[in-house]
Write a structure and sequence with these properties.
By secondary structure, this protein is mainly α. It is built from 4 helices and no strands.
């Protein structure tokens, strides 16, 4: 098994989000982004969650394994997968991007870049 796949992307995204929130909460960094970017943050988070749910439902509908480490039984080529090969990763990226816009600090902007 690939060493990189042993670190599951949802866990990586959650860890990056947790670190961003802790740094934002405990550091005296000044907020650099204000309204209307908070609205953009909310839209990014909604798009991210919607992408995750739609991609997951597509996997369930096709009876394919959702886990990246599971044996590939079929390749999905419709729905969101018609436009991107990794809509779940893209959804996680949009959630991190939205959270970083919401926090509005330079340190929080590193999470989507690292992901």
């Amino acid at each position: 098994m690939n060493k990189l796949l042993s670190y599951r992307p949802p866990r990586i995204a959650l860890a990056l989000l947790a670190v961003s929130i802790m740094v934002w909460y405990f550091s005296p960094a000044e907020t650099l982004i204000f309204m209307p970017y908070k609205l953009i943050a909310g839209i990014c988070i909604i798009i991210g969650f919607a992408g995750l749910i739609l991609a997951w439902l597509q996997f369930k509908k096709s009876k394919a394994a959702v886990s990246p480490t599971a044996k590939t039984s079929r390749i999905i080529m419709n729905g969101l997968y018609r436009y991107t090969r990794n809509p779940m990763y893209l959804g996680m990226f949009f959630i991190l991007l939205g959270a970083s816009f919401f926090m509005g600090t330079i340190s929080s902007m590193s999470a989507p870049v690292v992901f």
